[in-house]
Automatic annotation (TrEMBL):
Family of this protein: Belongs to the AHA1 family.
Gene3D superfamilies attached to this UniProt entry: 3.30.530.20
Organism ancestry: Bacteria, Pseudomonadati, Bacteroidota, Sphingobacteriia, Sphingobacteriales
Every Activator of Hsp90 ATPase homologue 1/2-like C-terminal domain range: 23-169
Protein name according to UniProt: Activator of Hsp90 ATPase homologue 1/2-like C-terminal domain-containing protein
UniProt cross-references to InterPro entries, sorted A to Z: ASHA1/2-like_C, START-like_dom_sf
One Pfam match: AHSA1
SUPFAM superfamilies: Bet v1-like
Domain of life: Bacteria
């Protein structure tokens, strides 16, 4: 386990697990995690912005984010909500086909050029555990393979997520 930006980071078989404690109740943490007005302020590493943040929060509903780097490069992300239990759990797919070509090229280099991005979806589970009014957030990304995991970790996914969680902690204080 590694400690990074106030979060615990574990790399497991086909998984990246990030855990952090927030000084806010699960209902507020869930709200800030899922409300587009808040998400566009905290999603992505520093100093990225989010000019597009659309959320259809229902099972089968889709999300669409576009992170923009400081030099203007866009990183679109889309996925589908699978399970939603407000204040407790959120499960969604992260559809690699929808991601930036740059990321697909890096993943293809790591996994093999014959990778079919139209069928690869990472599964993301977010657990909101109540610890006496605080929330232990556990973010687990399950990858299609260890090769995809290694490619994403190699692109500093853990660093990006833990920076997002730093911004998320601030957003909780102003929500």
């Amino acid at each position: 386990m590694t400690r990074l930006n106030n979060a615990d980071v574990e790399i497991k078989d086909r998984e990246l697990v990030i855990t952090r404690l927030f000084d806010a109740p699960p209902a507020l943490v869930f709200k800030v995690w899922t409300d587009p007005e808040h998400v566009k302020k905290w999603w992505g590493p520093k100093p990225f912005t989010n000019p597009v943040c659309e959320i259809d929060l229902r099972p089968g509903g889709r999300f669409h984010y576009v992170m923009r780097s400081p030099d203007g490069m866009d990183f679109p992300m889309r996925g589908t909500y699978i399970e939603i239990v407000p204040g407790k759990r959120l499960i969604y797919s992260d559809d690699l086909f929808e991601q930036a070509d740059f990321w697909k090229m890096v993943i293809g280099d790591k996994v093999g050029d014959d990778i079919d991005f139209s069928t690869i979806k990472n599964k993301v589970t977010v657990i909101f555990d109540d610890l006496d009014g605080k929330t232990k957030l556990t973010l687990t990304t399950r990858f299609a393979s260890n090769g995809v995991r290694d490619a994403m970790v190699g692109m500093q996914m853990a660093e990006g997520w833990t920076q997002s969680l730093e911004k998320f902690a601030y957003e909780l204080t102003v929500a």
